[in-house]
Structure formats: C-alpha cells, structure tokens
Amino acid sequence: MTQNVTLVMAQINAVVGDINGNVEKVIEAANAARTDHQADIVVFPEMTLTGYPPEDLLLREGLYPQIDQALSTLCEQIQDMAVVVGYPMMDELGERFNMAAWIENGQIQGSYIKQNLPNYSVFDEQRYFSPGKQPCVVDYKGIKFGLLVCEDIWKISPAAQAVEAGAEILLNLNASPFSQEKHQDRLNVVRRRVNEVKCPVIYVNQVGGQDELVFDGCSFAMSGEGEVMVQAPEFSEAYTPVKLMKQADALVMLPGEQAELHQDEARVYHALMMGIRDYVEKNGFPGVILGLSGGIDSALTLALAVDALGADRVEAVMMPFRYTAEISMEDAEKQAATLGVKYSVKPIEPMYQAFESALAEDFAGYEADVTEENLQARIRGTLLMALSNKTGSMVLATSNKSEVAVGYSTLYGDMVGGFSPLKDVPKTLVYRLAIYRNSLSEEVIPERVITRPPSAELRPDQVDQDSLPDYDTLDAIIRAYVKEDKTPAQIVALGYDETEVRRVIRMIDRSEYKRRQAAPGIKITHRAFGRDRRYPITSRYSE
C-alpha cells in the first residue's frame, strides 16, 4: 500500500510579541496551504507564536496565558490537517521551555522541548530556558515524524534519539539569522546529520527583520542521501510543498520546487532591504529621512531605503558647509532626482557661525581642531532629528562598519538616527554593493560617487586616508581582530605593518563607548558589533 503525504514548509514573518497577529498568520498560512497545495501537514518556524527572539518578554508571566489561549485557538480553528508550531512554555514550577507542538484533530498530539540551547553570538537561550531530554515522534498516516528545534540539528544527539525512537523523517523548526555564509553552513550541518542518522530532514526557517537580525528563510527539504529536493526562496514569506511517499517500509521524498537563491552582493543587498523595511514597518514609522552628503555611504543608504520602502516614504537632505565640494552637491541632487525622493538643501553656515560666536570666548587661545569638525556634524544631526520629530519619519544613520569600528564618526552628529543599515557593512563591501545596485537598472548612484576618493568634507581638501589606512588594509585588519579574534602579532604575521596594526586596534578598543551609543544596525556577518560582540567600555586589557 502506498501512502502519499503533502507537507508545506511555511516560512512566515512573525512579529515579536504580537501573539494574536502571529496566530492569524498561522491560520491564514494553514488555509492557503490546504487550498493551494492540498496540504496534510504545515510546519512553521521556531517560536512561531511569539516571534524570535522575544528576549526578556519571556520573563513576563503574563505572556504564558496568552500562549495557552493561542494554542487553544489553533486547536479550534485548524481542522482536517496537522500543523507544527513553535512556542514558549512555563510550567507550574516557573521553568521555561522552548517548545514545538504537533496539533491535529483539535488537540496537541505531541510536544517536544528543545534540547540544545545556544548561548553564543546573538543567542541567550540559557538565560531563559531549561533544556529537554526526550525525543518526540508522531505517527501520521503511517509516517513517523520526529520533532527538533533549531540548534538541535547542529548536534547529533537529538537527531539520533528521534531516529532511535522510530522517526523516519525529522522536522526541524528554526529561527536562524542571516549572515553571508550562513545558508551554506546550514546545508553542510544538515547533510552531516543526514549522513550520520540516515534520515531525511525538513528544515523550516523564519523570514523577516527583527531589530539587528534578519532571517532569510531559505527553508529546504533534504533527502536521506543528502540531496536538497526542495528549496524555498530567500527574503520572502513562502508556503513551499514537500511531497512524501511511503511504500511498504520505504519513505521517499519527491523532487519539488527549487527557488533560485541570490549570490554574493545580491544576497547582502536583499538582506539589508528586508532589515530596513521590517524595522520601519514593524515599528510603525511613516517613512525615513537621511542626510545625503554626495558620498558613497549615504548614496547607498538612500538607494536601499528607496528599494525597501518606495520613494514616497524617503526624504533626503543635503546640508552643505564651506568645505562641501560642488561635485558633492551636484551628485546628491542628481541621485535624489533619479530616485524621485523628496529633497532639500539646508546650508549650515549660519548655524555654525552662531555656535562659533557663542563659544568664541571659551575657545580663545585654542587652535582649530577636530572640535570644529564635530560641530559641523552635530549641527547636521540636530537638523535631521528636528525634521524627524516634526514629521514622525525615522532618521537613518549612514556610517559603515569600518567607521564604526575605529570611531570615525561623531557622537550626536553623523551617528544620530534610529537605525543604521550599514553598521555591519565594511567600506570595501559598500563599494561592491553600490556597483551591484547600479548593475540592476539605470545608474541610481552617480558613478563619480563611487570613483572619487572618500571624504568627510569637514576641513579643506580632506580625504579619509589622511587619518586612516587604505580601506582594503583597514577592513582586513578589522576582520582579523573583530571577526577572527586574532592577536596583534598574528595580524602582523599576515603581512601588515605592526605600527599600523596596533594603531587600528587601539582605535577599535577606544571606540567601544561610541558603539554603545550607536543606533542598532543590520547584522550581515558572523561577528557584528552590538549583541554579537560584547566588550567592556572600561578596560585596560591589551595584547
């Protein structure tokens, strides 16, 4: 006898804390999967009902009655099929667990507690949850499904337990954040598990932006031979069917949809777009505003914002000063016109002179230095924040990772903003992303912005390389020190000048206090500043 089962991988964009809204999404997805694909089972991501990561919302006792009600609603509303959802649970002793539930015929037929609780990088699950110890296997139409949650697939024990308990296929619910190499890492890990336990895996991942994190989806189904039989798309909600056939004792996964995935700069660009869009949408901002300087960072940020939100929700402001080059003004105006955004020019000379006059007595006897440069940046920041307060639009900061690393930015100046899209994007990648964006259509970033030497234009004839190494060198040192945790000696051994290496490292270490006050930004690498890399502000450690 042959048994056919259609399972749908539902990669949804849950909103953290919106339990009722997330329940509605689950019901909508289940109905769509039934209508469009005649689904028997619909599998959702980790922590479906709360969104991920809920962080200290998990410590609020009032959360759990809402979760209980949500589960009851799903049991009542979803009939004639099975759904697998993730959620948090708190028992009568106050212990909390990261759960997966199999709901069928109006009740929870099986539940599983996540065993491996990650406590590295952006993850803090041991702060909130206690681990499970037991497998959960559910028999549905003659096929035995084993439940796993996210990190469980990265270790052999939970998968082996499930297979020993009779599982013929593993369902892995995930909230796995994006980074540039992450999808290949997932494929490698799941393929290793498949080879070890000789069991196919269905990997369902969350999609959407949540503060600094972006979840790329990319759900997939892998056969017992380690072949990806079904691939869901990146950076979009999707209900992707997986066909299973049970014949005698053999379970077969049939080939299905194979979404084409983005590569290299395209993948990063789409991650940044999603991060901007969801941060703005989920926090209820009507739009964004940014300072457009005629430089590469603000130019790329403007292009990303327009692609993410639409031109009608983006405003750009040029704030020239006596050191602003004519070509900067020309290029900013040209880009704003090309993209069709609201654009204005607000010279800061009168305001600067007012500050200069007010501080003249205090500054008497001092030579002009970085103070005057920072004053220009802070005037610009004040103007942007005033426009934000009046209109409700959020200011986008435009600093890149290279600048954030070494403190090449001004507190309460060009660092102002509610969100910083390029915070984890090194300067060298900024250029590649700008070239990529121009390759898609007309030239939305003027070519001269890409080719001219970068400058903050805070003093005559200034260029970034007056005070920084060239960006190829700088980004390589930052990557080695920040991402790879190499010592100064190890970095010098790679071929870099020791004086330069130690100077860059000193700048990185001394800028921690600035980074603590910076806007959140989108994580795209394995080691982003913020929750991914936590260093003390006050520290005398050195190597």
Provide a short characterization of the protein structure.
By secondary structure, this protein is of the alpha/beta class. Helix content is 38%, strand content 19%.
Characterization of this structure:
This protein is α/β, with parallel strands linked by helices and 543 residues long. The chain is built from 17 helices and 19 strands. It has helices spanning 19-37, 63-77, 125-128, 156-164, 182-197, 264-282, 296-309, 326-339, 349-363, 370-391, 401-406, 427-440, 447-451, 471-483, 488-493, 498-510, 512-516; strands at residues 2-11, 41-43, 82-90, 96-104, 107-113, 137-140, 143-149, 169-174, 201-205, 207-210, 213-216, 220-222, 228-231, 238-247, 250-253, 288-291, 314-318, 342-345, 394-395. It has a 7-stranded mixed beta sheet. The chain has a 6-stranded mixed beta sheet with strand order 6-7-8-9-12-13, with helices on one face. Strands 18-17-16-19 form a 4-stranded parallel beta sheet, with helices on both faces. It is elongated, with a radius of gyration of 26 Å.
